[in-house]
Specification:
By secondary structure, this protein is α+β, with helices and mostly antiparallel strands. The protein is 27% helix and 19% strand. The protein starts with 12 loop residues before the first strand and ends in an 8-residue tail after the last helix.
Length: 250
């Protein structure tokens, strides 16, 4: 196993998610052992993600776990991520996981499956006569460090935790044509492209040319995706923060 800034820590790292796909992806990106909630002694984890920002929801998950993790010392991380589509005024945004459950009167609803959410997104774009729109995948990572190790005393009060949150994004196009079977969520509908493009989202010819030269996240293998993803960018930024508290393993 290659060592990165997180894998050098003697403290266990716990990911606050019940999403096995997300847990697998974080482990692959960090190339490090990351504990599941079950590994950390948490049998039930259900947080009402009622904040209006990715940062707020990510920190909610971290705070919900601080007193429940059955470990004396640990690092807990949580992400809240979603798709923001320009033509839909930023929707589905923080409601990405429950987009299909929303209606015009109630912002909330419960989590719905990925297929239903993707169908909802397609319908909303098609209502506007669009085959796609510029969009971005957003990822906010919240963290908290709890330790009693004397090696941290210059940075942390003994027995206390330090916490924070940061956010990164991946630019691209959300398209009604879903491609690929890799990834999860909206990956098959999202085509990453960091370059500036001039696209006519009402022209089928423009759509054809775009799809001939771009792949969706769902078409990329995990290694390719993890080299460019919004989650990778956020986790790498987190590593830089954690470098201030580095404790190398023996």
């Amino acid at each position: 196993m290659q060592k990165d800034e997180l894998s050098k820590y003697s403290l266990p790292v716990v990911l606050a998610t019940g999403n096995n796909d997300k847990l697998r992806e974080v482990r692959e990106i960090l190339n490090s052992e990351v504990l599941s909630l079950k590994d950390a002694g948490i049998e039930c984890f259900d947080v009402d993600e009622n904040k209006d920002s990715f940062e707020g929801n990510a920190m909610l998950k971290v705070e919900a776990l601080l007193n429940d993790i059955k470990l004396e010392e640990f690092i807990v991380i949580a992400d809240d991520s979603g798709l923001s589509v320009e033509a839909l005024d930023g929707a589905p945004g923080v409601y990405s996981a429950r987009y299909a459950a929303l209606d015009d009167k109630v912002l909330g609803g419960t989590k719905t499956d990925s297929k239903a959410n993707c169908e909802k997104l397609k319908k909303e774009l098609e209502k506007k006569g669009l085959w796609g729109s510029f969009a971005s995948f957003e990822c906010a990572i919240a963290y908290a460090i709890k330790t009693k190790d004397k090696m941290y005393e210059d940075r942390l009060e003994k027995g206390k935790q330090e916490s924070g949150v940061l956010r990164k994004s991946l630019s691209g196009v959300a398209c009604v044509e879903e491609r690929g079977s890799n990834g999860f969520g909206y990956d098959g509908m999202f085509y990453p492209c960091e370059e500036e493009l001039k696209l006519d989202f009402k022209s089928l010819d423009s759509k054809k040319k775009f799809l001939e030269s771009h792949k969706s996240l769902g078409e990329l293998d995990p290694n390719e995706k993890n080299k460019i993803s919004h989650r990778l960018k956020a986790l790498k930024a987190l590593e830089a923060v954690f470098a201030n508290y580095e404790v190398k393993k023996d």
